Amino acid sequence: AGWSFSDDEAWSIVQADGSKALRGAGHVHAYAGDNWDEVVWRMRVKLSTGQTHLNFHAKDDLRYLTSFGQDGTHISKQPAQMWNDVGTNVHHPLNEWHIVEISLFEKVLRIGVDGVLEIEQQDSNPLPPGGIWLEVLDDSVVLFDDVHICEVRE
């Protein structure tokens, strides 16, 4: 998928641990696709400072907002917030790569980090298909690598 960026100067490709990674600094956004439905997306995320939002089914004002930081993983459904801040307080150390997997399949949202299912949330009224959106927050520096989006097959 092609990416578009909110601020080309705040995003860069950097060498990190033998791989090229996308680095976002400050409150910036990167967007890909616009019609993802039941998919699994997987990426490596390295928090240098701060936290990131991994948004999906993002279209217009709608999105699932996954907040990923040192102090845990949380998800909310925006903007209606039929449910908000479902999550865990699992520690994610800074300056380490974490494998994050996010999926929506058969009305169940799942978020796993480093092979551990951290969140499983029913949604009887899922958001319509939309894009994915990497959001780095104020005072944050985050690296992203190996972003894969896969359709779910039964």
Average residue pLDDT:
90
Give me the Rg, rounded.
14 Å
The stretches of 5 or more residues where confidence is low (pLDDT under 50) are: none
Order of helices and strands: EEEEEEEEEEEEEE
Name the overall outline: globular
Order of adjacent strands in the largest pleated sheet: 1-4-13-6-7-8-9
How many helices? The count is 0
The first-to-last residue Cα distance is 23 Å
Please bin the fraction of helical residues.
Answer: under 10%
Strand portion, in percent?
over 45%
SS elements, strand count: 14
Described by strand count, sense and barrel closure, the largest sheet is: 7 strands, antiparallel
The chain-level structural class is mainly beta
Describe the structure.
The protein has 154 residues and is mainly beta. It is built from no helices and 14 strands. Strands 1-4-13-6-7-8-9 form a seven-stranded antiparallel β-sheet, with no helix packed on it. A seven-stranded antiparallel β-sheet has the order 2-3-14-5-10-11-12, with no helix packed on it. Strand 7 and strand 8 form a beta hairpin. It is globular, with a radius of gyration of 14 Å. The two termini are 23 Å apart.
List the helices and strands and how they pair.
Elements: E1 3-5, E2 11-16, E3 19-25, E4 28-36, E5 39-49, E6 51-59, E7 62-69, E8 72-78, E9 86-88, E10 97-105, E11 108-113, E12 116-122, E13 130-136, E14 141-151
Antiparallel strand pairs: 1-4, 2-3, 3-14, 4-13, 5-10, 5-14, 6-7, 6-13, 7-8, 8-9, 10-11, 11-12
